[in-house]
Write a structure and sequence with these properties.
Elements (H helix, E strand, L loop, with lengths): L24 E3 L16 E3 L2 E5 L5 E3 L2 E11 L2 E4 L11 E4 L4 E12 L10 E5 L2 E4 L3 E2 L2 E2 L3 E2 L14 E11 L9 E6 L2 E6 L2 H7 L6 E7 L3 E3 L4 E9 L5 E10 L7 E9 L4 E8 L9 E9 L2 E10 L6
Parallel strand pairs: 3-16, 18-24
Antiparallel strand pairs: 1-2, 4-5, 5-8, 6-7, 6-13, 8-14, 9-10, 9-15, 11-12, 15-16, 17-19, 19-22, 20-21, 20-23, 23-24
Amino acid sequence: MPSRRQFLKASAGLGATLGFAGCLSSLSPSQDGDVDENETTETATKTPSVEGLPFGAETTINGVTVTPKNVHPQATLFYSKYDDPYEHDDPYALERLGDEWVVFVNINAYADSGPTPPRDAFELVAGDETFAALESVADTPLERLIPDEAITTDAYDATPKVTGWLVFTVPVAFDSASDLSLQFTQDETVVKWDLPADAKARIGSERPTFELDAFDVPEQVVRGNATEVSLSVRNTASVDGVFRAVVRMTNGEPHRDSRKRVELPIEASTEATATVELDSSKYSGSRSTETCYLQAVGIERERTVEVVLESNDS
């Protein structure tokens, strides 16, 4: 996926204050005089734990530095059907999990030597409930997922230095959303960052629902000219949301389609309009019929478009 976006800046001011840095405290009973060789001396080991760090605070444990950057819950998400979407027509699809939010978390990780921690070193936690970082979503591998533009990187991978996203699923309207933290475990040291308030509120809410009020496509387009398609969508829920869709123009011939992904933020109980410009340079023939498709979760529309060499108005 192209990385066209800029990384969010996060405070790192608390990193220097974390003096535990991987240390484990050993508590041994003090003894006077000689020790009986037959007596076993037990050592209690305490696991250091730091909780309630503000999201964005940097921490270093035994040469591994981790900084969480941002959290982005999504009700739906795009993914590619193929390893290389540019080699296929109609390569994109949309997924909405049954009763779960898809939660992306961007992190920076750096190791003085060797790889950074694996994905399973990270969890979302709330009380006794934990949500592991996933290796796939809806049977789709991470490299095919396409997060919103709010997520600035590719999937997290355990290399010596990486900025990437982790992905989790959390129940919709999660009762304990206000207690959610990102937990990181390294060498038996546990660190927790409180999730941002807006992310916790989002995860604790219902998902938005949408209705398509209009899908306007010109009846005729000139080959080589851009084609403008507009859509009007209403958010019928009491929460803000993002309407996601794929708009595609094709005549059914391989590699002759033009497609765009739509991400349209819409406030609760309001309507918004988006205009999509499709490239018609791939339209074939001196005169042909194309079909314009709109595909969203629970919504599908299609319109027939005539493609000509020049406008009838000329």
